Amino acid sequence: MADKVIYAMYDDDDVLKNGAKKLVSKGVKINEVFSPFPIHGIDPIIGVKNTRLGIMAFLYGLIGLTLATVGMNYFMIQDWPMNIGGKPSFTYMDNMLSFIPITFEFTVLCAAHGMAVTYLIVNKTLPGMPAQNPDPRTTDDKFVMELRLSENTSFSASDLEGMLKDTGVIELDQKEI
Amino acid sequence: MEFKIANKAKMLTVALMGGGILFLVIGLIVHMGDDNFLTRLLSNTLINSFFFFSIGLGALFFLALQYATETGWYATVKRVIEGLAGFLPVGIVLMLVALLTLAITSGGKSGDYHVYTWMDSAFTTEGNHHYDAMIDGKSAYLNQAFFWIRTVVYMATYYLFYRGFRMRSLEEDRVGGTEIHFKNYRKGALFLVFFSVFSSTSVWDWIMAIDVHWFSTLFGWYTFAGMWCTTMTVLVMLVLYLKKQGYLPKVNDSHIHDIGKWTFATSFLWSYMFFSQFMLIWYANIGEESTYYIQRIEDYQLMYFGMFFINFAFPMLILMSRDAKRNAGILLFVGLIIVVGHWLDVYIMVSGGSMGASASIGFLEIGMALAFLGLFIRVVLTNLTKAPLTPINHPFLDESIHHDI
């Protein structure tokens, strides 16, 4: 489906934030904002949902916990019983204290790496992936707001541009996708 | 906005103190003839004095930490932290009374039981049938004169810093500017230098010396972590209470979330210290070190590990999600439970060393804890009435009002 995208560029994050507030109050849906750094408080204005990365971190942590427990039980107790700290009881429970540091480390390792990789995949920013932002200047000192016509059916393109011009944009651009 | 103590809160504190004293008297009468009576009584004064004193001290430490790091978010709850730290003068008096009573009763001697065995001269006099070479060997450090010099130095330092912070905080309300802020910054850093040493050594003197043969280098940090955790838990509950009463209009969900995070994080810190101390001693398995745990596991097995489970698992599992840390009901539920958990921690630290298997929780213990709790709440609430609940000229006040995470 052909869609028209309007890019509005700002040179100040506060101007962009106030502009976004004004547009949203008029019923405009803002699809995305590109910025060189996180803009504090922009999420609730443009309606970004809370991230679920934390839930994934918990699940990765659980996976790490399970892997570490199963692994150590096999290596140290079942396959080749080890005399641990002079306490050769050969059961996992009795030697549990010595396994806890490794369990902890492995849980953290899995949670952290899982979270980082998930983040890169969800944002499509794995190394070598093409850049998503419309203008390279948004990695430097400019901020871009993206509106899609298909999400704002009650407005025409010129309506939207008119409203954007009132919010202090420095550049306006349109693109067909 | 000026804070006024609600009648309900006044009645609650009076009821706690009255009920506590009633329970205490029943306990005193019931246990009057017991072998360990005096040790039990003095152990309990030490437990409760130390527990509530350490909440005040934890608040003072937390305040100094915010000053030294020039933190912005906390400005709207600063007066609440000061209110908690304001228990310190009372806590110091309680601690001094508890320690002084112990000093004049040969370390709380009752039958064969002692709180501070080293204070009983029978153990350090050569030729006496109680003579203990290990205790005598420590007498260069553990003797009454040096003990009191140290105790007075700790208390004087804490009190002077508290008074300075409070004075400057009230002065800032009147004059504003940044000069006071930078003075607080320097004094806060200086306090942390003193506190980093004193937090360990004071606990060696007051708590670790109960198990006089035993020592652990982690003990100071372990107790400090417990104290910090209790302080943050009490702080979050107090802020929630004040918010419910309609005070602190500038405190938003983000502040509550942040203090909730502190509760969560310090619970982990405490558990980490507990485990580190426990595992190293378990692994090394040296008789001199493991005696502390063998005794506690034999005499307090359920309470000891139950206390660890509560203080570790409850905050971890319940407070992990973002929404839980923003929910007053959940914070209050977890907070109440882990405050009791940390009281039990102090209880086992002291009673395990002083009375061993003969310790039990009865009217005396509950009564005294309730009476101290009533006094604590009353003193803290009274402190809050003495200054505006939101600082007027704090340089970071604006940042704090717009705090958003």
Give me the secondary-structure category of chain B.
mainly alpha
The main β sheet of chain B shows up as: none
Portion in strands of chain B: under 5%
Q: What is the β-strand count of chain B?
A: 0
Structural notes for this entry:
The complex is a heterodimer of chains A (177) and B (405). Chain A is built from five helices and four strands; from the N terminus they run βαβαααβαβ. By secondary structure, chain A is of the alpha+beta class. Chain A has two domains: 87 residues, Alpha-Beta Plaits (2-Layer Sandwich), CATH 3.30.70; 70 residues, no CATH class. In chain A, strands 2-3-1-4 form a four-stranded antiparallel beta sheet, with helices on one face. In chain A, helix 3 packs antiparallel against helix 4. The radius of gyration of chain A is 25 Å and the shape is rod-shaped. The model of chain A has no long low-confidence stretch (mean pLDDT 89). Chain B is mainly alpha-helical. Chain B has one domain. In chain B, helix 2 packs antiparallel against helix 7 and helix 7 packs across helix 8. Chain B starts with 6 loop residues before the first helix and ends with a helix. The mean pLDDT of chain B is 93. Chains A and B meet through helix 4 of A and helix 9 of B.
List the helices and strands and how they pair.
The complex is a heterodimer of chains A (177) and B (405).
Chain A: E1 4-10, H1 13-25, E2 30-34, H2 42-46, H3 53-79, H4 96-122, E3 143-148, H5 157-165, E4 171-176
Helix pairs in contact in A: 3-4
Chain B: H1 7-31, H2 37-68, H3 78-85, H4 88-104, H5 133-137, H6 144-175, H7 179-206, H8 219-244, H9 253-284, H10 287-318, H11 322-325, H12 328-354, H13 363-385, H14 397-401
Helix pairs in contact in B: 1-13, 2-3, 2-4, 2-7, 2-8, 2-12, 2-13, 3-13, 4-6, 6-7, 7-8, 8-9, 8-12, 9-10, 10-12
